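TASK: fixed-backbone design
INPUT:
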């Protein structure tokens, strides 16, 4: 509980047997009331290990980072949680940052982490110059268009949203993939939500990468994110480029 309100952590997981146990234990801090792992068709031991570590596990058949997170957000709302934290299953974020996120939620609807301007980048963290510049550039575009110019990262999974704002934006979230991350920020800002970005720890992941596996894939994800940020004009402008990369 934080300030008398329930806190839930949502973790999308796809074949994360190497990291999920450690991640669940790290995020099951006293302030957290429940932790839900969304097992996204894992073929390894992810679900069993997560359950054993203390998580509630649900299975989401639609494949993808966005699809898994959206399912987790629905589950969290059904169980009357007020603060909903999202993180990854790969031990790249730290449970100790949750309280900092919650404290920054005072007077705000949504607090999101940044991995680009952070003094807390761990050795070997997947945040080289290409990803820093890419995330910052797309974040500036989003911030300037939608009204939060300080934004410096669009792909940081670690974040917390309050129940009333989540109820408002969840029906509007559509991305099944990595674009869910900026889509959520765009929707909150369009609803007039008060948000803040704060630096969080970001460490080398345990296990193999699923999203940012190559620069090419990161670039395609970047284009999909720009599409979401620009809305309908974005669909018209970016679709031909995305077809080129198929
Ligand atoms: N890519 C991907 N990730 C999924 C899927 N379902 C759940 N996830 C989880 O979403 C989170 C993000 O995936 P990662 O592979 O860590 O992607 P990333 O953070 O861009 O890449 P790294 O820097 O290597 O960590 C992880 O917790 C995955 O287990 C899926 O279908 N595809
Ligand atoms: Mg990751």
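OUTPUT:
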């Amino acid at each position: 509980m934080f300030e008398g309100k329930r806190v839930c952590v949502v973790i999308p997981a796809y074949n994360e047997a190497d990291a999920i146990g450690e991640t669940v234990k790290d995020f099951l801090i006293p302030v957290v009331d429940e932790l839900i792992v969304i097992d996204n068709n894992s073929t390894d031991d992810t679900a069993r290990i997560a359950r054993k570590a203390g998580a509630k596990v649900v299975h989401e058949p639609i494949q993808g980072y966005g699809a898994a997170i959206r399912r987790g957000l629905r589950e969290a709302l059904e169980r009357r949680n007020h603060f909903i934290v999202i993180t990854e299953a790969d031990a790249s974020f730290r449970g100790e940052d949750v309280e900092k996120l919650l404290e920054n939620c005072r007077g705000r609807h949504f607090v999101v982490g940044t991995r680009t301007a952070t003094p807390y980048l761990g050795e070997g963290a997947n945040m080289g110059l290409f990803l820093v510049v890419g995330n910052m550039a797309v974040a500036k575009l989003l911030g300037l268009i939608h009204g939060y110019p300080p934004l410096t990262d669009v792909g940081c999974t670690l974040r917390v949203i309050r129940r009333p704002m989540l109820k408002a934006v969840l029906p509007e979230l559509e991305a099944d993939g990595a674009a869910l991350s900026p889509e959520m920020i765009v929707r909150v800002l369009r609803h007039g939500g008060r948000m803040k970005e704060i630096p969080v720890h970001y460490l080398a992941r345990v296990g193999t990468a699923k999203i940012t596996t190559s620069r090419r894939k990161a670039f395609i994800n970047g284009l999909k994110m720009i599409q979401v940020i620009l809305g309908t004009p974005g669909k018209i402008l970016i679709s031909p480029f995305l077809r080129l990369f198929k």
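COMMENT: The pocket of magnesium ion (ligand 2) is lined by residues 88, 90, 92, 205 (CB under 6 Å).
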